[in-house]
Amino acid sequence: MDLTDYLGVLRKRWSTxxxxxxxxxxxxxxxxxxxxxxxxxxxxxxxxxxxxxxxSDLNQGSTFAERQMVxxxxxxxxxxxxxxxxxxxxxxxxxxxxxxxLTATILPNSVILDISATDEDPQLAADLADAVADELSAVAxxxxxxxxxxxxxxxATIVTEARVPTEPSAxxxxxxxxxxxxxxxxxxxxTAVARELLDTKVRGAKDVTALTGVPVMATVQYxxxxxxxxxxxxxxxxxxxxxxxxxxxxxxxxVGLDHKLRSIVVTSSLPGEGKSTTSIALSLxxxxxxxxxxxxxxxxxxxxxxxxxxxEGAAGLTTVLIGRAESADVVQRWRRTGLDVLPxxxxxxxxxxxxxxxxxxxxxxxxxxxxxIVVVDSPPLLPVTDAAVLxxxxxxxxVVAGADKVHxxxxxxxxxxxxxxxxxxxxxxxxxxGRRDANRYGYESYRSRGPGETPRRPESPAEAAAELGxxxxxxxxxxxxxxxGTTLPV
Length: 490
Known about the structure:
By secondary structure, the protein is an alpha/beta fold. It has helices at residues 3-12, 14-34, 55-67, 69-75, 79-89, 95-99, 122-143, 173-198, 205-211, 232-235, 240-255, 275-287, 305-309, 317-321, 327-330, 351-355, 358-370, 386-393, 408-420, 435-438, 461-468, and strands spanning 39-49, 102-106, 112-119, 154-160, 216-221, 263-268, 293-297, 332-334, 339-342, 373-377, 396-402, 425-433.
């Protein structure tokens, strides 16, 4: 990840950062408010060299006192000093426990020692500081070696007695809140980056590009409510999803420039990624240009096209494959859209064998001859092999990747399955992408007409054909009848 990627993560997962920062800040505030206030009192001591008979004696005494300051600070927290203090003040603690409430600080380059005591009771804190200083004065003189004349070279003097504090020294509310906020932002940022790095789902086109060389043909955003209907191309022709599918239709034209693409298998890695909805939407988008389009429901395990489109599904593909009907007998026209539909029919006990049979290959050739373009909705790749079998028979395969479902390894495995059978993979359709990502170009607001208005249609048959490279067919020809005119090089 480069700097741009990190900034993208922060922009994408800002809510995570804010949430963790607020939780951490709240925890810091709660701990601060629940903490028992502590008060600190300080007594200042001065260790002076006793007067001598000569300047040399004074220098020696002063040097000795300065060198002993560290020792005096250590002695202040020793049982030698604290046991008498505990007895004098009548405290119910041990010397090592009392030592935790004391701090001895040496002022730099001096013989001044500050004794600080901290306690919940401000008066007791002051009494502790003074009592420790008094006892340290006596102990320090006893520990110093006597001179030849019996005097002590160093004398400890209390220069400032402790004052009873009026403000608590802890907790520091401002500091704790500031640290809580800073730590929360850092923790939220680390969490956001970690979630991004550990997220194995295919979230965007960049994930597909990094995973494989297969191009992303289109990105279709996620919708809820009535606008999520499989027939959104008709129900919501001005919506962003309809525009995304039209972009897919346009891109398919360019991938088929070097050969005539007459049949497309639409599949996915897993169930629930939106392959059937994409098949229906793509078929309607192709039919909207005036092309003769046939949508075949070849998902013989969990057929859904007939249910989504409100068609009779008892007879269909399986009926034709077992020789009980001709395709023209079971193909149904959906409304007045120029779209014909071949439902799946009854669910057979051997879907893979039927789809891989000579009858299926022959039927697909006949259907391609009868229509400009045949769109085949097939089962997902990873659970079963049906889509791989169909992908080998068709001119190209589109793989739908649900941004909310499929993981990178699963998409890679699905593409490998198609590659192993020699299927021509046209690209990946990234489906169910979040609105924030899908609308980054502002398509939702770029609308020529308001809701309820008639969507723009090509002004002439020539204009419709130019968009997809087809000659306009007779729209009311009988379903399944061989059309006349130029075929469809998508």
